[in-house]
């Protein structure tokens, strides 16, 4: 505040005589006014509480107990409230000096002043825990009148409040228990056991879902909308006049008015009321933090207010600007947790529209007469938990619109008959079964909403409501539609009966219903429909029924919607001359009805997903037809000779077309969009016989055909082409001269061909923003980085060897995908580019990802037309230490926040849940529900679909198979390919699911006409959107299947993928694609070419489950064969034996990351570095064959060909050495690689073999040897050159070839049958052996890490080198009397 303003604030004007003592007549008039509003009782004297001395004060929601309305202030053009006494000469009239533009009201003692004082006291103490109780103590009538104040009592305990999903807070009743409310809420989410509910309830993050408060919480945003108040320096009138001085006054903003007290004590004098609707608020630059508020009209008044802080200044500016900019006088107090209306709201004399949605106003509405003081035209009381109809609204004579939806009402009282002016009455989402006959007195009622109630028939009172022209009864319980009832309602024109359970229509000898023009019967149970009785029907909706036949009267028919039925016959008589839109997609029609060709005004025809074999030629002659969708049929050809047609959009994808008509592109002058993907086209028709062309084609989709290079020159006949998709054809080249003529091209997709280069003339396409050319043979990086508009470049799965990027990348570049180029080498400069999505293959590492060869995956993501990537993918090949895998796809529809949170968090949650339970359904369900909590505030308003797939093996059942568990919410789904056929593992919960529809109706949610819950989401089970609870829940669909050798791969896809491709088509499309990445890319490319415009994500996981992938080592020689289900890995895995001896290698716990089977495979990078260097297919000298007599007595499984007394397993340790080792495993000073040690330059992998064997009773065990000493600094290796004992038995030839594998086409490695496991972390400090191997000790500690500190690296290397120089002792097979050793060395 400026010094001048502060100085004038000290010289407050003296209180005028009118302010000091009110006239007796004015006091009497005000008392009579208050008595009339308060039910006739005279006001009682009470002490006035002191006003706040300074500072801004925001009214807490619902704390101020409202008194009776203060009545209407006098003024020009303002009518006096009905029943108020006439003001006398000395009465409460306009105060001198107040001006005629500002309304002023003289506040006097009495009950009204007590109520305002209580409001001030309650709002000032709103931050204290006992604010609710304090407000309750100031209720009208609580203060004893007469002889002084009541004695002070101890403050009662604070009232408890509950808040759901960060929204409104509700006061708990006396009989409500917080813990019971919380438990019920968590059970409703999907938790199944009480101990888990209690555990979840103790988590601090549960507050974003449900939270309890002692005392009402303070909400800044909500309180700003309710009321702003504070003590500020105020000046009235023009700034230039010296008579106006600054004064410290109470200022209140509530409703549509600004109120300024006339004296310092805000409750002792008059209040100047300034209406703000149509006014303005301006910044006063001469004074700091000063605003000028002006009313509208020729007699407007202006108040200047200086605020103490900049924060208050902005708050008032923002709120007043909203009010002043309104065209109508409306106040929005929705979602403010109101229990009572603020008393100052009644000063807004011109208030006409009041929104009180989602509050708790049931108690306030019990007192009639309060709202009648406002001239309301519209009142919204929906979602207020009323339970009973609010009788107080019946006393508002001016009301024309009333919304009491979703209030659990079970009856409408007869008192509503007095609401003669009501025009719109919304009763949706209640439990109504009947309407009172008194409703017939509402002669002006034109709209009555009865959707989602419990009606079983049409209410009879509607016959008397002649002004109502629409019957809104969707979502009720009607099983039959009696047309006789509609016949008695000739005023009804629009009938909405969707989402009922109507099975038949009963005519009852009704001739015609001429008054019905629109009929909506979507989502019912109709088997056939004869709508000929509606002879004036204009719009008919009958989607998603079970219709086989449909008969319609076509005199005035304009639009027909009959998709997703089983129609085989469709008759419309007479020919519909006014029909403009027709959708009969997803039916069983075999031909186009003849009458369709005669509909001269038909503009849009959708006959896709039928069984139509031929299109009539007359159809294209229709001059009005603009859009023809005929995809997914059985068309073998289109009409040969086409006359000039006006079709602009032609979709004939997924047919059996061998060619397009030769004159199609010549006659279709208006064709802008052509999609002929997924056919058998080998050539294209020419655009024009001459060089000059008039083609207007802009989008051309020809993906998944058999087009060759001969088609490329024909594309130049479309110079205005913007989008070209020719993926998965037989193109081998794209001539540069042809590309140069497509100058307006913006998006091109040539993936899945055999192109070796992108023509350099792509530089001529200056508008190009997307180049997709994956899965080709491109060797040279194209010059697309010079294009100024380029955003997306996809060159994955090619043969690129080098990439040269410019120093300055295109400013709009968002994605560059170079994965799947095995020969590509990138320098460090290239890797430093900051692109939103720069995808390259990860560099090879010694241990790689540790992914077992049983599965390998590839994934891709693609943004939609809005360039927002609203999907995310999750892939963890070695989930829980290489024994399991986890994959997921997440779709946020239109938001990017939720998919990213799911991608980052969900795997950690699942890992925690696996420690609590092993039941597949239980840990998957709990994972999704806990994720609902982890979304925090983002999940309160946003949501996303998710699918999660977990591959695991039961460590307690080594002979069992792998289990694939899929869980999903929303439209993200999983499909497993088994024997070449799709096996769906997911379920999409939408309104078409009968049990979900029943649940939604039970919770009284409103399903809009587009099939979305409250207009938000079409999925009833989805993550996030917690404000839709309990209608929308996160409980997933869970399905588990054991993997078999017949399982080839499975696909995870987002909503856009499955909306564009069926499960059968997706499986067939990628079954013969060997590379998982290329398969995922193909799915996304196909979906985009088939019409998907949303973000896409696909994950393809290829499986290799062998028949003998289990351990049967404990079976006797004559035992049964292996079980049919596969084991842990294909014929290359190994596992520990069951019932091992006490001194054998112990089984680590699952929490240590190692299960009993110790199952893991070599990753791709590991295998590629070992094959050809240290591994060999030949067995070492002296190694006995597997069928030798020494092993004949012990049957072995294919996983473990050799059995010894004490099993051990081969592992790779993660010991860290310096980079002196070269990539080929040679030391800088050595000529030979160190046997049993592999390295990639930064890590050394030490091989340890662990075989499983069956302990025999007659075996003689060696005495256990003590383990090597371990120090705090790392591993101490024994200095003994050789350990005494009998010679070690060599492993079989199969063990020697343990690192040999065959490389699959997708880059992964499938090990041979006799190979062994590789585990990253060693179990304990092993002992060094002469052959360069390390033998595992008898008592391993799974928590130990095999790490060699830097200070011991040189010593360890020297010891290994010395050991390598000594020749190993000769190995001889033991005699019959020799004892079996604890462990054995198997040199490669």
UniProtKB/TrEMBL annotation:
What span is annotated as the signal peptide, if there is one? Answer: none
| EC number assigned by the record | 3.1.3.16
Question: A single GO CC term, please?
Answer: cytoplasm
Cofactor or coenzyme needed: Mn(2+)
List every stretch annotated Disordered. 1-101, 121-159, 1123-1193, 1251-1317, 1356-1388
Bias regions of kind Pro residues — which residues? 1366-1376
Q: Tell me which domain of life the UniProt entry assigns to the organism this sequence originates from.
A: Eukaryota
Put simply, this protein is called protein-serine/threonine phosphatase
Organism listed in the record: Lynx canadensis (Canada lynx)
